[in-house]
């Protein structure tokens, strides 16, 4: 089977831009996708993608089209073992979500493939296999503390197995079916969150009077000690920025830090994690199990009679977050808010019946969201197991069965009785 360098398959490659942060003569508005936006865009969330102003003459050469791939070529995170080389496939439903032309950020590269030779999404899966296998790190070098992906070296050295297009498309059909279901799950979770945030905001409108938030929510509540032999541990990197579910954790002997249990909310208190929205709802523990986490978490817990999801949506509320950010103190780049200052906040007293209805609705939604996350983890495991097998050719998909002509038609669809 033919293995070809990516240089033979790439029709066009162009670096991205960053433009200006305000309207400027000769510039036009664009959406600029960064490597940090890949996961959100893949899940249908585009609100965090920066809107910038780029020179009009530079927009069209960089403009992203359906079927393009964006490749992260600078950045990464050595501390988290994350190399450059992440990729995003631009499917047909991505660009309509933006109100402006889309370009890659300056730390990314737009890659367009020769589709007479290779299916663009098949080439993307080759890049994903390269990243997940760790081969992407082979093309990195370090410059002034930033990891850089050596694109020219990659083009010549990274080989892709290129079977006939029909075989490529069968592989794409299998992998993309898994990806599409994962994306659907993510979009359902996002829709739940948006609806429940609106319902939470309505509680304030229908309530009466204000009270200290501590009458409804405990901040850093007392929690039993975790198991000495090992307990679930959540680090800052595991906290999501847009949704509730915490998708990854480890297990280790407790060594201090925050303590929490199911139904608690974890709020990042340090810059820039607080500003970026790092917040998570704990629902993955066994009954009565205590977990530990970063010392940079504030733990929020609902008081008796308050739905456990209430503190989570409080932590997502713009007014509360703005209050917490204003209370941050410390040296530049290491500012943080302490729990007492974050708790110095007044909240509208919700109508009890509406609060109970919100709790019932949120409880059912969070149960479904947890089930979707479990399914998504299983789908991701299956996809990432199949990916190297299919891309290497170790696993061969069977050819499609011949068309069934028992209905009285030939393979072209014409009646054999005419």
From TrEMBL:
Keywords, sorted A to Z: DNA-binding, Restriction system
Gene3D superfamilies documented for this protein: DNA methylase specificity domains
Positions of the UniProt region annotated as Disordered: 394-418
PANTHER family: TYPE I RESTRICTION ENZYME HINDI SPECIFICITY SUBUNIT, TYPE-1 RESTRICTION ENZYME ECOKI SPECIFICITY PROTEIN
Organism: Actinoplanes sichuanensis
InterPro entries xrefs: Restrct_endonuc_typeI_TRD_sf, Type-I_RS_S_subunit
Keyword check for DNA-binding: yes
Stated name of the protein: Type I restriction modification DNA specificity domain-containing protein
SUPFAM superfamilies, alphabetized: DNA methylase specificity domain (SSF116734)
CDD domains reported in the protein's UniProt record: RMtype1_S_EcoEI-TRD1-CR1_like
